[in-house]
Amino acid sequence: MKTDRVPVAREGVPFVLSGAFVSVIFALLGWSVPSVMAVLLTLFCLYFFRDPERTFSTEHGAVVSPADGSVLSVRRGVEHQYYQGDCLRISIFMSLWDVHVNRFPVTGTVRSLHYRPGAFLAANIEKASTGNEQNAVVLETDDGRKLVVVQVAGLIARRIVCWASVGDRALQASRMGMIRFGSRVDLYLPPDFEPSVSSGSRVRAGETLLGRLP
Fold it and tell me: Which of 70, 91, 174, 183 is catalytic?
């Protein structure tokens, strides 16, 4: 798992350095318009790959958001692939302007990882949860509760990054991974979980309280 502190996610460093290099070359050649465009692209990469610190207070049973963005839906149902049973699902959409570093919602142990290739539909539609490329992180809390964080690729997102490994000690709000350029995260929780957010709520990874496990 990633535990070090950097202002920009390491996956973004090649984009930032490449943009800065191209900007300097264009400037030396006297190509003003391409130089300005390259600088703007570099600044966008710095903004997109930003990796800010977050402050949070840990309470017993608290579940914090695994992603920045807007809550698309909060619904109960049966999940057959990862959670394998009755559950509550909170879906969070990350736009291009949101921080894309994902964080663990609880403290516990990483029990399994499941990567599945798929399509690249728009991440804010329901079909994305089942049809898009995705990576699921199955967590078990210290008191035996099961949660699943599913990183879902989107229309523009083509790269899911997960820093967790099976057997890792997951610390609440610590960095878990990221998805490049617009995507969603689905969080599957026990069916008795009472959420404190609803569709349309704005959330911040590692900081916004989604509710508490009974």
Answer: 183
Q: What pTM value is reported for the model?
A: 0.82
For residues 130-143, one letter each, b for 16 or more C-beta atoms within 10 angstroms of the residue's C-beta and e for the rest, the string is bebbbbbbbbbbee
Please name which of 111, 5, 120 lies closest in space to residue 51, comparing C-alpha atoms.
5
pLDDT tens track of the chain, all 214 residues? Answer: 444 445 777 776 777 788 888 888 888 888 888 888 988 888 877 777 788 888 776 778 899 999 999 999 999 999 988 999 999 999 999 888 888 889 999 999 999 999 988 776 666 677 777 778 899 999 999 999 999 999 998 766 567 889 999 999 999 999 999 887 668 999 999 999 999 999 999 999 999 999 999 8
**CATH superfamily of the 62-212 domain:** Glucose Permease (Domain IIA) (2.70.70.10)
Residue spans per domain, the chain? 10-48, 62-212
**CA separation for the pair 198, 97 (Å, rounded):** 21
Is 85 in a helix, a strand, or coil?
strand
Of residues 184, 183, 182, 193, the one with CA closest to residue 75: 193
Assess whether 23 carries a catalytic annotation. Answer: no
